Amino acid sequence: MSILGIAITTILGLLGIAAIIFGFVGGETYLVIVGILLMVSAALTFSMFKKSLSDPFKN
Asked: Where would you find the membrane-spanning parts of this chain (predicted)?
C-alpha cells in the first residue's frame, strides 16, 4: 500500500469518526450521516489500495 493510500484512508477514517462523535454529542443527524459516508469512502479507498498491500512484490 502506498503512502498516499495510507494517508487518504487514515484521514477519511479519522474525519468520519470525528463527524459521528460530534453528530451524536451535538444531536445533529446530518453529521452522523456525513460521518458514515466518510467511513464508507475510507473503506472503498482502502479496498482500492489493498491490491498492492496484499502482494507488494508483484510487478
From this structure: 29-49
pLDDT confidence bin for 25, thresholds 50/70/90: very high
Q: What is the DSSP letter of 56?
A: T
Residue with cell 459516508: 37
Which 3 state secondary structure label does DSSP give 24?
A: helix
C-alpha 59/C-alpha 54 separation (Å) is 13
pTM of the complete model: 0.73
Q: Rounded to whole angstroms, what are the CA distances from 4 to 11, 30, 41, 46, 48?
A: 11, 28, 15, 11, 12
